[in-house]
Design a protein that fits this description.
Distance between the termini: 56 Å
CATH architecture of the largest domain: Alpha-Beta Complex
CATH class of the largest domain: Alpha Beta
Number of domains: 3
Number of strands: 10
Shape: globular
Radius of gyration: 25 Å
Largest sheet: 4 strands, antiparallel
Strand content: 15-25%
Helix content: 40-55%
Order of helices and strands: HHHEEHEEHHHEEHEEHHHHEEHHHHH
Bound molecules: nicotinamide-adenine-dinucleotide
Structural class: alpha+beta
């Protein structure tokens, strides 16, 4: 397997050199790579066709996550995110995880749930029995509405009936969406079967829409990290390992901590989901609903010490992603992001995305359980602060360095440094 994701010192290179290194590793023409992601990968004229009332486009930094090895394969991971340190932290953790063999991931089939709500049901038991006994007819009816998906091997796989109250049922249509996220497809299925379902149940049909709690479309990731790979300044590998396991336990017993723990997971996940043109609201909704499925909000990713003394990390998360459909058809940058990843299926994409989430979480727990999150975070934040204070060009790095050295990473300190720099210039 080619090691395309290892590029020590990548962060020190200027952008045009990074582009050259990436194009070479990915075997993509440099001009093609540059053209695809230029100006955020989306021209205003195209944007105008995607949503309403467009007045321009809105860009985010587009970066590459390094060191990712998932199921033995190397990936350069496109990430679009505004928060400093997300990309550096995930890449750093991926390097530590690599020392233990990388990420091991598997994903369910792409089964999405479409809900048909039934209201004022006169007899819930009879209605439920009638629907279940007509499952084959309803599956065929749903499939007739989505011939394109059938051509790609997907389709309605079955149904389930749930009783919500004495006179309310919901029918779940289970649709294998293959390499599509599937929202539009599933909604089409729901609307096509709802009339017949209403007749069978002898009641009124309510809402017909997919559920974003796609708990039949989960992805699981496991990592084993040797303590030697996670040692940190002044902390042995064993100390860091135990600190991470304790921090994970904190999230398991406290929803206030679990919310921030999961925010760290989503830092990495959203960045790849956005870069690949996928629906991050859908992924977020599914993740948090799944985290709360027991009635209590819990961490999506946990760490413990295994019987060989290694740090064992595990994550399970629902993941509705597409490599076709949605904006991937029209957003040049998203198309290039998928090409950079070179994934062959939506399931493979989900495995990489979840791995980035786990890496982000490991990086956050490692920092929190050692020196704290602020030093690394603020060090990387210093450049943004310098820009906010008005620094331009070469001044940015100069001001960032000075405020780091001062230990005052604030806009006020950066403004003062800029003032000092200009005074120095005039006095020489
Ligand atoms: P879509 O409407 O573009 O449908 C995907 C199409 O791709 C289908 O026609 C399918 O037949 C075709 N296709 C080609 N090759 C395929 C393959 N290998 N596997 C599967 N399908 C293949 O997109 P979608 O995925 O149905 O819907 C996604 C969009 O819906 C997103 O933009 C999302 O934001 C939006 N949406 C989301 C929600 C929600 O999450 N609640 C609700 C409504 C709409």
């Amino acid at each position: 397997m080619k090691e395309i994701s290892r590029h020590p010192g990548f962060y020190k290179l200027p952008i045009d050199e990074r582009l050259r290194v990436a194009a070479q590793a990915l075997e993509i023409e440099l001009d093609e790579l540059i053209a695809a992601i230029d100006r955020g990968g989306l021209q205003a004229e195209t944007a105008d066709k995607i949503i309403e009332n467009v007045i321009g486009t809105y860009a985010l930094p587009f970066a590459l996550g390094l060191n990712f090895k998932v199921n033995g394969r190397d990936y350069l991971v496109p990430m679009a995110v505004e928060e400093p340190s997300v990309v550096a932290a995930a890449s750093n953790a991926a390097k530590m995880i690599r020392a233990g063999g990388g990420f091991f991931a598997d994903a369910d089939e792409s089964i999405m749930i479409g809900q048909v709500q039934l209201e004022y049901v006169p007899n819930a038991a009879e209605a439920s029995a009638a629907i279940i006994s007509h499952e084959k007819e309803l599956v065929d009816l749903g499939n007739r509405a989505i011939p394109d998906l059938l051509l790609h091997g997907g389709g309605v796989r079955g149904l389930e009936v749930r009783q919500l109250t004495d006179d309310m049922l919901v029918v779940h249509m289970l649709v294998d969406c293959r390499d599509a996220m599937g929202a539009n497809t599933v909604n089409t299925v729901c609307e096509s079967v709802s009339g017949r379902i209403g007749l069978l149940a002898r009641c009124r049909v309510g809402l017909r829409i997919l559920s974003n709690l796609c708990d039949q479309r989960k992805v699981r990731v496991t990592v084993k990290v040797p303590p030697s790979a996670i040692a940190s300044k002044g902390f042995s590998g064993e100390q860091v390992r135990d600190g991470i396991a304790k921090a994970s336990r904190f999230a398991e017993i406290d929803p206030y901590r679990a919310a921030t723990h999961n925010k760290g997971v989503m830092n990495g996940i959203d960045a790849v989901v956005i870069a690949t043109g996928n629906d991050f609201r859908a992924v977020e909704a599914g993740a948090h609903a799944y985290a709360a499925r027991s009635g209590r909000y819990r961490p999506l990713c946990t760490f413990c010490v295994d019987d060989q003394g290694q740090l064992l990390g595990k994550m399970e998360i629902p993941m509705a992603l597409g490599i076709i459909g949605g904006p991937t058809r029209v957003h040049q940058g998203a198309r290039m992001a998928l090409r950079i990843l070179n994934v062959k299926s939506a399931r493979e994409l989900a495995q990489v995305v979840a791995s980035v989430g786990l890496a982000s979480n490991l990086a956050a727990l490692r920092a929190l359980s050692t020196e704290g999150i602020q030093r690394g975070h603020m060090t990387l934040h210093a450049r943004s602060v310098a820009i906010a204070a008005g620094a331009q060009g070469a001044q940015v790095e100069l001001v960032a360095e000075r405020i780091r050295a001062l230990g005052q990473i604030t806009v006020e300190a950066a403004e003062q440094v800029l003032q000092d720099l200009s005074n120095e210039r005039y006095s020489t």
